[in-house]
TrEMBL record:
Gene: LOC111308898
Membrane topology: Lipid-anchor; GPI-anchor
Name assigned to this protein: COBRA-like protein
A Pfam family it matches: COBRA
Primary subcellular site in the record, as a coarse category: membrane
Localization: Cell membrane
Family per record: Belongs to the COBRA family.
Swiss-Prot/TrEMBL keywords: Glycoprotein, GPI-anchor, Lipoprotein, Membrane, Signal
GO cellular component terms, A-Z: plasma membrane; side of membrane
Segment forming the signal sequence: 1-32
Keyword Chaperone appears in the UniProt entry: no
Keyword Phosphoprotein: no
Annotated source species: Durio zibethinus
Domain spans labelled COBRA C-terminal: 225-416
Amino acid sequence: MNPFYFVVQRSVYMVSTLIFFFLLSSVSPSYGYDPLDPYGNITIKWDLLQSSPDRNDVKVSILNFQLYRHIERPGWRLGWDWTGDEAIWSMQGAEATEQGNCSRFRGGQLPHCCEKKPLIVDLLPGAPYNMQTTNCCKGGVLSSMIQDPTKYAAAFQMNIGAANNSDFTMPENFTLGIPGYSCAKPVQVAPSRYSSDGGRRWTQALGTWNVTCIYSQFLASTSPKCCVSFSAFYNSSIVPCPKCSCSCQGLPGATCVKFGETPSLLQQIKDPNQEPPSLVRCTQHMCPIRVHWHVKQSYKEYWRVKITVNNLNTMKNYSQWNLVALHPNLKSLTQVFSFNYEPLYQYGYINDTGMFWGIQYYNDMLLQEGESGNVQTELLLRKDQGTFTFREGWGFPRRIMFNGDECVMPPPDQYPRLPNTGHGAKFSLSVIFFSLLLLIIMC
Ligand SMILES: *[C@@H]1O[C@H](CO)[C@@H](O)[C@H](O)[C@H]1NC(C)=O
Ligand SMILES: *[C@@H]1O[C@H](CO)[C@@H](O)[C@H](O)[C@H]1NC(C)=O
Ligand SMILES: *[C@@H]1O[C@H](CO)[C@@H](O)[C@H](O)[C@H]1NC(C)=O
Ligand SMILES: *[C@@H]1O[C@H](CO)[C@@H](O)[C@H](O)[C@H]1NC(C)=O
Ligand SMILES: *[C@@H]1O[C@H](CO)[C@@H](O)[C@H](O)[C@H]1NC(C)=O
Ligand SMILES: *[C@@H]1O[C@H](CO)[C@@H](O)[C@H](O)[C@H]1NC(C)=O
Ligand SMILES: *[C@@H]1O[C@H](CO)[C@@H](O)[C@H](O)[C@H]1NC(C)=O
Ligand SMILES: *[C@@H]1O[C@H](CO)[C@@H](O)[C@H](O)[C@H]1NC(C)=O
């Protein structure tokens, strides 16, 4: 081989690796901004429907405007601070967890909740009809926009009043009760409109406020919750999840269940309002979720990938799970077996990211660790002329997220490699081109 060509090829490869690393670090959604879902938020909408000096009717809606993050059981627990001495007299479609001290309303019927900081939970499915409202009673679960656009919202109504008659004032300090979300101050927006008489007449709220809540993986947890391993038909070595991806065996607080053991009954506390504790199988990565990407087969014009998601959490079933993957060849995805798929392209022209999720009643529940604690799919992708190659780990994903949280990837220099021959430059140039394109878009 021409030595000059070799040097050029090497440096091109190094530069592209650097850019790749830079990209990985710059697209991290850890601080609340997610380039894959730039407008993603959960909006709490507060509509003042009726107002009289002593009583106000309010409708509160919680809308999950996130493309791929959903809210699982035990669900949202909405909280706020009243600015005065308001009490909630009645509530439909949800309930306050505590009634609190209502002694200031002695005599007659007592309010539903007199707490200064009420905490509201959704009713469970099948709640009595007279306690329901439209969109209520899902046990706090909210689907993502892509997975099930009909179940992304929750709503409840309440009647509030103060001991002293006063005008309505908007409460403050909203919280969703889900790790990782922080909510901004309420902002008064154009009043909500409601259609009646089949759309011939519109009524409107007396006032509407929005509270926007944003997710940050870093706020939710400082340690990752999933990792990625690789293999390929052309190389017999399996690249495992990086050691200590989520925690390290032997660290204080890092408990795990050895293979063959069952978790002790003491740890299986069943409180429906609490997130089940995480107790993982002992592995060198200690993650509750492992995603394995196997480059399975090569055909003349197509290639095949198998993705397996393993649940290593011995205490948790993941309902409505989803997986987001970034790979440049996803734009030529031809067929997906046994998962649903939807491309996520927020920038119109790069179509390299997509979301996978389970098929209802078949594999939309990722069961707790054990023989059936996994879901899998195979993808058939068309080899794109000019970019496709098995060299330099091109066949492996650039990013993987499980339930909206970034997974830890093996370092690029460990990717399964083809035995050496010599045409890598084409690949490297395309990576550079691609990386620069992405960089330009991100800045
Ligand atoms: C929240 O999401 C909705 C829907 O995508 C969007 O219209 C709204 O502007 C977002 N709000 C913020 C503050 O980003
Ligand atoms: C909201 O939270 C801030 C900071 O914790 C606190 O100072 C303020 O009093 C709270 N607002 C109300 C109405 O309690
Ligand atoms: C309940 O609230 C009243 C005033 O509204 C107060 O006097 C009383 O001490 C409170 N009781 C408790 C147990 O906090
Ligand atoms: C109610 O109003 C009276 C007088 O208008 C006032 O003295 C009292 O502090 C008020 N109570 C509360 C809880 O704001
Ligand atoms: C307020 O929230 C509603 C969601 O119900 C959204 O349609 C609207 O765009 C939001 N307004 C602002 C100003 O963010
Ligand atoms: C997970 O689902 C299986 C089958 O439906 C059930 O037997 C098991 O108890 C569930 N585990 C948890 C932690 O809910
Ligand atoms: C994006 O990719 C999907 C397959 O992954 C394809 O069905 C869709 O047509 C592509 N869209 C564009 C605009 O290229
Ligand atoms: C498989 O890939 C590894 C890099 O992860 C490399 O060290 C090894 O030489 C490759 N094996 C073969 C047969 O090429």
